[in-house]
Protein backbone atom coordinates (compact mmCIF):
# COMPACT_ATOMS: atom_id res chain seq x y z
CA UNK A 1 0.00 0.00 0.00
CA UNK A 2 1.21 3.53 -0.78
CA UNK A 3 1.83 5.68 2.30
CA UNK A 4 2.42 9.43 2.41
CA UNK A 5 3.93 11.00 5.53
CA UNK A 6 2.93 14.54 6.48
CA UNK A 7 5.51 16.29 8.64
CA UNK A 8 9.30 15.95 8.77
CA UNK A 9 10.05 16.77 12.38
CA UNK A 10 11.38 14.26 14.89
CA UNK A 11 8.42 11.89 14.66
CA UNK A 12 8.00 12.32 10.91
CA UNK A 13 11.62 11.32 10.39
CA UNK A 14 11.23 8.27 12.61
CA UNK A 15 8.08 7.17 10.76
CA UNK A 16 9.82 7.74 7.41
CA UNK A 17 12.73 5.54 8.48
CA UNK A 18 10.42 2.80 9.80
CA UNK A 19 8.35 2.74 6.60
CA UNK A 20 11.44 2.11 4.48
CA UNK A 21 11.88 -1.20 6.28
CA UNK A 22 8.22 -2.22 6.31
CA UNK A 23 7.36 -5.14 4.04
CA UNK A 24 3.69 -4.25 3.52
CA UNK A 25 3.97 -0.48 3.07
CA UNK A 26 5.53 1.63 0.37
CA UNK A 27 6.65 5.12 1.39
CA UNK A 28 5.93 7.26 -1.66
CA UNK A 29 6.84 10.66 -0.25
CA UNK A 30 6.87 13.20 2.55
CA UNK A 31 5.03 16.52 2.75
CA UNK A 32 6.72 19.32 4.66
CA UNK A 33 7.16 23.06 4.13
CA UNK A 34 10.84 22.60 5.06
CA UNK A 35 13.35 19.75 4.80
CA UNK A 36 16.60 19.91 6.74
CA UNK A 37 17.96 16.90 4.85
CA UNK A 38 17.42 15.30 1.46
CA UNK A 39 15.54 12.01 1.24
CA UNK A 40 15.33 9.43 -1.52
CA UNK A 41 11.52 9.59 -1.74
CA UNK A 42 9.40 12.39 -3.20
CA UNK A 43 9.69 15.65 -1.28
CA UNK A 44 6.54 17.77 -1.43
CA UNK A 45 6.03 21.24 0.00
CA UNK A 46 2.23 20.80 -0.05
CA UNK A 47 -0.43 18.23 -0.83
CA UNK A 48 -1.26 20.15 -4.02
CA UNK A 49 1.90 18.68 -5.53
CA UNK A 50 0.90 15.06 -4.88
CA UNK A 51 -0.43 13.41 -8.06
CA UNK A 52 0.02 9.69 -7.35
CA UNK A 53 -2.35 7.22 -5.74
CA UNK A 54 -2.21 7.29 -1.96
CA UNK A 55 -3.78 4.64 0.25
CA UNK A 56 -3.13 6.39 3.56
CA UNK A 57 -1.51 9.45 5.13
CA UNK A 58 0.33 9.32 8.44
CA UNK A 59 0.29 12.80 9.95
CA UNK A 60 2.78 13.96 12.59
CA UNK A 61 2.78 17.67 11.78
CA UNK A 62 0.83 20.68 13.08
CA UNK A 63 -2.88 21.42 13.69
CA UNK A 64 -2.74 24.18 11.06
CA UNK A 65 -2.42 21.51 8.36
CA UNK A 66 -5.63 19.71 9.28
CA UNK A 67 -7.98 21.25 6.72
CA UNK A 68 -5.66 20.48 3.80
CA UNK A 69 -5.21 16.90 4.99
CA UNK A 70 -8.95 16.31 5.40
CA UNK A 71 -9.68 17.87 2.01
CA UNK A 72 -7.06 15.70 0.29
CA UNK A 73 -8.23 12.58 2.09
CA UNK A 74 -11.85 13.09 1.08
CA UNK A 75 -11.02 14.02 -2.52
CA UNK A 76 -8.74 11.01 -2.99
CA UNK A 77 -10.59 8.70 -0.61
CA UNK A 78 -7.51 7.69 1.31
CA UNK A 79 -7.37 6.68 4.97
CA UNK A 80 -5.86 9.05 7.52
CA UNK A 81 -3.76 8.33 10.60
CA UNK A 82 -3.77 11.62 12.48
CA UNK A 83 -1.26 11.61 15.33
CA UNK A 84 -0.69 15.36 15.62
CA UNK A 85 -1.45 16.90 19.02
CA UNK A 86 -3.01 20.20 20.05
CA UNK A 87 -6.33 20.24 18.19
CA UNK A 88 -9.08 22.51 19.47
CA UNK A 89 -12.69 21.38 19.77
CA UNK A 90 -13.72 22.80 16.41
CA UNK A 91 -10.92 20.91 14.66
CA UNK A 92 -11.90 17.67 16.40
CA UNK A 93 -15.45 18.20 15.15
CA UNK A 94 -14.15 18.66 11.59
CA UNK A 95 -12.26 15.37 11.89
CA UNK A 96 -15.43 13.66 13.05
CA UNK A 97 -17.44 15.15 10.17
CA UNK A 98 -14.83 14.07 7.60
CA UNK A 99 -14.87 10.53 8.98
CA UNK A 100 -18.34 10.02 7.52
CA UNK A 101 -16.64 9.95 4.10
CA UNK A 102 -13.30 8.23 4.82
CA UNK A 103 -11.79 6.07 7.58
CA UNK A 104 -9.83 8.21 10.05
CA UNK A 105 -7.76 7.15 13.05
CA UNK A 106 -7.12 10.07 15.41
CA UNK A 107 -5.20 9.77 18.64
CA UNK A 108 -2.70 11.76 20.66
CA UNK A 109 -1.05 8.47 21.56
CA UNK A 110 -0.57 5.73 18.97
CA UNK A 111 0.95 3.10 21.28
CA UNK A 112 -0.57 -0.37 20.99
CA UNK A 113 0.15 -0.82 24.69
CA UNK A 114 -2.08 2.15 25.52
CA UNK A 115 -4.87 0.61 23.46
CA UNK A 116 -4.58 -2.52 25.61
CA UNK A 117 -4.49 -0.39 28.78
CA UNK A 118 -7.79 1.24 27.79
CA UNK A 119 -9.35 -2.19 27.30
CA UNK A 120 -8.17 -3.34 30.73
CA UNK A 121 -9.47 -0.17 32.39
CA UNK A 122 -12.83 -0.44 30.61
CA UNK A 123 -13.18 -4.02 31.76
CA UNK A 124 -12.57 -3.40 35.47
CA UNK A 125 -13.33 0.25 36.31
CA UNK A 126 -17.08 -0.04 36.85
CA UNK A 127 -16.71 -3.12 39.05
CA UNK A 128 -14.11 -1.42 41.24
CA UNK A 129 -16.25 1.73 41.47
CA UNK A 130 -19.39 -0.22 42.44
CA UNK A 131 -17.41 -1.87 45.24
CA UNK A 132 -16.30 1.42 46.78
CA UNK A 133 -12.89 1.91 45.23
CA UNK A 134 -11.62 5.41 44.47
CA UNK A 135 -10.16 5.94 40.99
CA UNK A 136 -7.25 8.25 40.17
CA UNK A 137 -5.32 8.85 36.93
CA UNK A 138 -1.68 9.91 36.99
CA UNK A 139 0.50 10.85 34.03
CA UNK A 140 4.17 11.86 33.71
CA UNK A 141 5.92 13.45 30.74
CA UNK A 142 9.11 15.32 29.84
CA UNK A 143 9.60 18.95 30.81
CA UNK A 144 9.08 20.18 27.24
CA UNK A 145 5.45 19.05 27.01
CA UNK A 146 3.24 22.13 27.08
CA UNK A 147 -0.25 20.66 27.59
CA UNK A 148 -1.63 19.09 30.76
CA UNK A 149 -3.23 16.74 31.38
CA UNK A 150 -2.07 14.61 28.50
CA UNK A 151 -4.45 13.55 25.77
CA UNK A 152 -3.95 9.96 26.88
CA UNK A 153 -5.00 10.80 30.44
CA UNK A 154 -8.15 12.36 29.01
CA UNK A 155 -8.70 9.23 26.92
CA UNK A 156 -8.44 7.04 30.01
CA UNK A 157 -10.93 9.26 31.82
CA UNK A 158 -13.33 9.09 28.85
CA UNK A 159 -13.14 5.29 28.89
CA UNK A 160 -14.15 5.28 32.56
CA UNK A 161 -16.83 7.95 32.17
CA UNK A 162 -18.50 6.04 29.34
CA UNK A 163 -19.42 3.26 31.79
CA UNK A 164 -19.86 5.37 34.95
CA UNK A 165 -21.99 8.40 34.09
CA UNK A 166 -21.82 10.08 37.50
CA UNK A 167 -18.04 10.53 37.69
CA UNK A 168 -16.42 13.92 37.24
CA UNK A 169 -12.76 14.93 36.68
CA UNK A 170 -10.82 16.88 39.30
CA UNK A 171 -7.58 18.49 38.18
CA UNK A 172 -6.62 20.54 41.23
CA UNK A 173 -7.45 19.95 44.90
CA UNK A 174 -5.41 22.85 46.27
CA UNK A 175 -8.42 25.15 46.53
CA UNK A 176 -10.86 22.51 47.77
CA UNK A 177 -10.82 22.06 51.55
CA UNK A 178 -13.11 19.08 51.90
CA UNK A 179 -12.86 15.33 51.75
CA UNK A 180 -12.88 13.53 48.45
CA UNK A 181 -16.30 12.74 46.97
CA UNK A 182 -16.97 9.25 45.62
CA UNK A 183 -17.67 10.40 42.06
CA UNK A 184 -14.41 12.34 41.72
CA UNK A 185 -11.60 11.04 39.52
CA UNK A 186 -8.41 12.92 40.17
CA UNK A 187 -6.20 13.53 37.14
CA UNK A 188 -2.66 14.48 38.07
CA UNK A 189 0.24 15.60 35.84
CA UNK A 190 4.01 15.57 36.32
CA UNK A 191 6.43 17.36 33.96
CA UNK A 192 10.08 16.50 34.55
CA UNK A 193 13.29 15.51 32.82
CA UNK A 194 13.05 13.41 29.69
CA UNK A 195 10.19 11.08 30.65
CA UNK A 196 8.71 9.75 27.41
CA UNK A 197 5.35 8.99 28.94
CA UNK A 198 3.91 7.16 31.93
CA UNK A 199 0.22 6.61 32.63
CA UNK A 200 -1.29 4.92 35.66
CA UNK A 201 -4.87 4.25 36.67
CA UNK A 202 -5.12 3.64 40.41
CA UNK A 203 -7.97 1.83 42.15
CA UNK A 204 -7.79 2.37 45.92
CA UNK A 205 -10.09 0.46 48.24
CA UNK A 206 -10.10 -0.44 51.92
CA UNK A 207 -6.57 -1.56 52.81
CA UNK A 208 -5.57 -2.35 49.22
CA UNK A 209 -4.46 -0.57 46.07
CA UNK A 210 -4.42 -1.85 42.49
CA UNK A 211 -2.50 0.02 39.78
CA UNK A 212 -2.62 -0.53 36.02
CA UNK A 213 0.25 1.25 34.26
CA UNK A 214 1.91 1.83 30.90
CA UNK A 215 5.43 3.20 30.45
CA UNK A 216 6.86 4.29 27.11
CA UNK A 217 10.62 3.71 27.10
CA UNK A 218 11.21 5.46 23.78
CA UNK A 219 9.33 7.22 20.99
CA UNK A 220 9.61 4.07 18.89
CA UNK A 221 6.44 2.70 20.50
CA UNK A 222 4.53 5.62 18.97
CA UNK A 223 6.13 5.04 15.57
CA UNK A 224 5.28 1.35 15.52
CA UNK A 225 1.82 2.16 16.84
CA UNK A 226 1.22 4.60 13.98
CA UNK A 227 2.26 1.96 11.44
CA UNK A 228 0.02 -0.65 13.08
CA UNK A 229 -2.87 1.82 13.06
CA UNK A 230 -2.22 2.50 9.38
CA UNK A 231 -2.35 -1.20 8.53
CA UNK A 232 -5.55 -1.62 10.53
CA UNK A 233 -7.47 1.36 9.20
CA UNK A 234 -6.88 0.96 5.46
CA UNK A 235 -9.46 -1.83 5.26
CA UNK A 236 -11.94 -0.25 7.68
CA UNK A 237 -15.28 1.24 6.72
CA UNK A 238 -15.70 5.01 6.84
CA UNK A 239 -15.73 6.25 10.40
CA UNK A 240 -13.73 7.72 13.25
CA UNK A 241 -11.41 5.31 15.03
CA UNK A 242 -9.38 5.71 18.21
CA UNK A 243 -7.42 3.40 20.47
CA UNK A 244 -10.75 2.45 22.02
CA UNK A 245 -12.19 0.85 18.88
CA UNK A 246 -9.47 0.30 16.27
CA UNK A 247 -8.17 -3.08 17.41
Description:
This protein is an alpha/beta fold and 247 residues long. Helices cover 32% and strands 27% of the residues. Strands 3-2-1-4-5-6-12 form a 7-stranded parallel β-sheet, sandwiched between helices. It has a 5-stranded mixed β-sheet with strand order 8-9-7-10-11, with helices on one face. Strand 5 (79-82), helix 3 and strand 6 (103-106) form a beta-alpha-beta unit. Helix 1 crosses helix 6, helix 2 (66-76) runs parallel beside helix 3 and helix 4 (112-130) runs parallel beside helix 5. The longest helix is centred in the middle third of the chain and has 19 residues, at 112-130. The protein is elongated, with a radius of gyration of 19 Å. The relative contact order is 0.17.
Structure classification? alpha/beta
Which sequence of SSEs, written as H and E, runs from N to C?
EHEEEHEHEHEHEEEEHE
Q: Helical proportion?
A: 25-40%
Strands ordered across the widest β-sheet: 3-2-1-4-5-6-12
User: What is the total tally of β strands?
Assistant: 12
Question: Which term fits the overall shape?
Answer: elongated
List keywords for this structure.
5-stranded mixed beta sheet; 6 helices; 7-stranded parallel beta sheet; 27% strand; 247 residues; elongated; alpha/beta
Task: Describe, in short, the structure shown.
The chain has 6 helices and 12 strands. The chain is α/β, with parallel strands linked by helices and 247 residues long.
Helix and strand topology:
Elements lengths: L1 E5 L3 H11 L5 E6 L10 E3 L11 E4 L6 H11 L2 E4 L6 H10 L4 E4 L5 H19 L3 E8 L9 H13 L4 E3 L13 E8 L5 E9 L2 E9 L3 H14 L5 E3 L6
Parallel strand pairs: 1-2, 1-4, 2-3, 4-5, 5-6, 6-12, 7-9, 8-9
Antiparallel strand pairs: 7-10, 10-11
Helix pairs in contact: 1-6, 2-3, 4-5
Amino acid sequence: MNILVYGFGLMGKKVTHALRNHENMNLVGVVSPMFDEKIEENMYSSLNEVNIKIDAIIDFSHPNNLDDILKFGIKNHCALVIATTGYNQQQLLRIEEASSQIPIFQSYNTSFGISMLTKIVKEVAKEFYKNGYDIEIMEKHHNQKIDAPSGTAKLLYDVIQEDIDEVKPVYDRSEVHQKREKQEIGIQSVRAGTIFGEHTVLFAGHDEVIEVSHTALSKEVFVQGALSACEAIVDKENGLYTLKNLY
